[in-house]
Amino acid sequence: xxxxxxxxxxxKLVAFDTTSRESNLELIAFIQDTLSGLGVDSTLVHxxxxxxxxxxxxxxxxxxxxxxxxxxxxxxPVDGQAWDTDPFQAAEKDGKLWGRGTADMKSFIAIVLALxxxxxxxxxxxxxxxxxxxxxxVGCIGVRRLIDKLKDMPVKPAMCIVGEPxxxxxxxxxxxxxxxxxxxxxxxxxxxxxxxxxxxxEYAAELIAHLKGMARRIEAExxxxxxxxxxxxxxxxxxxxxxxxxxxxxxxxxxxxxxxTLAIDDPKALEREIRDFVADxxxxxxxxxxxxxxxxxxxxxxxxxxxxxxxxxxxxxxxALAGRNDHAKVAFGTEAGLFQTRADIPTxxxxxxxxxxxxxxxxxxxxxxxxxxxxxxxxxxxxxx
Length: 385
Prior knowledge:
Layout: H1 4-14, H2 25-36, E1 42-46, E2 53-59, E3 67-72, E4 91-93, E5 96-98, H3 102-122, E6 128-133, H4 143-152, E7 159-162, E8 171-174, E9 176-185, E10 189-190, H5 200-221, E11 234-242, E12 248-249, E13 252-261, H6 267-287, E14 294-303, E15 306-307, H7 313-322, E16 328-330, H8 336-342, E17 347-349, E18 364-366, H9 367-384
Parallel strand pairs: 3-6, 3-7, 7-17, 8-16
Antiparallel strand pairs: 1-2, 2-6, 4-5, 5-18, 8-15, 9-13, 9-14, 10-12, 11-13
């Protein structure tokens, strides 16, 4: 049964509107004050503007590697969603706790804070490091500044558990994601003289069709990883804009696309294929009409995937804490890939709640999942205290 102190902390955290477009500093100050009351100091790593911050703290001896528990403090917007309750006032009903961030992923952070006094009272032989970040929901942006600090620490965590909602299943992998913007520069002309112009929208359409062809080829030929629901890498175009009015050959078009790749696939090779198609096929035809025409492709976000060997100590350890023998891979991205690849910290994902409830109206976590999260933390106490 979920404990009152965990429910209380969840309700307090949900009440802070930490939608990614907003500051998270009030919530971070609350966590900092909570830990300070337990005699635990925190380090804040702010964004460049000073409007948001990561928090890093250690329960126990800071000079030992220990185990890091990681979570993000930001949530997705509620705009345009039809909620039955106030999304920023967690409501308990029908064995569930409803509110924005209950599943993704304030409940994990709340459970950690609720049980922190018990960790300290029992005495830690192995420290617990806490890493709470900002702007995960807009590309895992904030945690990168914290990781830069972690890399320079004389002693860094021996392993990391990212508490994203997995229904307490141990997750050893997720796909990497690269996001791109393609800016197509054409040449304006009257539509009655269309051959004298360079139609930016039409060239964008040719490139998008090429991307779709790549997606179909990968789906048909692989490579594959059967642990994923979508077993292959994907290529997807999601945003497009261009043109002024119908009787003008458009001089500009912009669209955004992404690659979500398996660890066994090479995103750089896929990117080269795209750039080669632009340079060898599209731009020569554009330049024949206007030397200034062309296509610029920019990668504006690179989120590495996670691929942790099931034989790693962190996997065996977390399986024991979760009371499970199996492991899985998930479609959604997390900060785990960054901890693994950029800080060289062995990492898995495991936390309470169901990702199927996240990012939509009437988000909830069951009280049963909260209790399972608490059980997980108490087994962790038995190991480190």
